[in-house]
Write a structure and sequence with these properties.
Number of helices: 6
Strand content: under 5%
Shape: elongated
Order of helices and strands: HHHHHH
Oligomer: single chain
Number of strands: 0
Distance between the termini: 36 Å
Radius of gyration: 40 Å
Length: about 230
């Protein structure tokens, strides 16, 4: 007694990429993040302007060092001036790098960049307060910060404040969320990619499921009449 093989079952649709669901695409850059990017580029430009101002005021710095330290030799005055100018230029170079790094990282939607930018803005606030103290001559320093440097520092702080407000805007929050990951490995999320509801037909000449096959009784060799003599 043999049974016929049932027909082939209908194949289910395959997902792209070897059965794995694709990760949801990142939303387009909102205008708030794009404007924050432009502001950060402006902050890098202001850092360069600050370095140029420091170089232009080298003679003013020398006069301040000589007036506050009349006992300094020429070598000591030169060293103090070089330290002050070098610190200003080094800080400007670091500032340009940080501004550009945060600008492109935030535009790419990196959430860590938004948090790091907020930390840098706090440090910029402390730097501005220190610059205001030096401009007033209340810190006991040999070098007094000029009004142009203070103006650039205030403008830089305002640019940073506007960028932080835009980055933490409600419109920017969805852009900084991580992309949605697939539900499990190779399985669709609930409600997505439903399987087709198709009945599985039986094979050709196959009895319906649940019905036992009809068996033919075996032939009895003794039931036939013997041949006539």
């Amino acid at each position: 007694m043999t049974y016929q093989q049932p027909g082939q079952y209908p194949s289910y649709p395959q997902y792209p990429g070897g059965g794995q669901m694709p990760v949801s695409a990142k939303p387009p850059i909102p205008s708030t993040v794009q404007n924050a990017f432009y502001l950060m580029i402006s902050g890098a430009v202001l850092a360069v302007v600050g370095a140029i101002i420091s170089l232009a005021e080298k003679s003013t710095i020398r006069s301040q060092v000589e007036s506050k330290n009349p006992g300094f030799t020429t070598t000591q005055v030169d060293s103090a001036v070089n330290v002050a100018v070098g610190a200003a230029i080094g800080g400007a170079v670091i500032g340009v790098g940080l501004w550009l790094w945060m600008a492109f990282a935030n535009r790419a939607g990196k959430n860590y960049a938004r948090i790091t930018s907020s930390v840098f803005f706090g440090l910029e606030t402390l730097s501005l307060l220190a610059g205001l103290a030096l401009s007033a001559g209340s810190a006991g320093s040999a070098v007094k910060v000029s009004g142009a440097s203070v103006a650039v520092g205030i403008l830089t702080w305002l640019v940073g404040l506007a960028a932080i407000i835009l980055l933490w805007n409600k419109q920017s929050s969805d852009y900084f969320k991580p992309p949605q990951q697939p539900y499990g490995y190779g399985y669709p999320q609930p409600g997505q990619y439903p399987y087709p509801q198709q009945p599985m037909p039986p094979g050709p000449q196959q009895p319906p499921y649940g019905t036992p096959p009809q068996m033919q009784p075996p032939s009895d060799p003794w039931s036939t009449n013997p041949p006539q003599q």
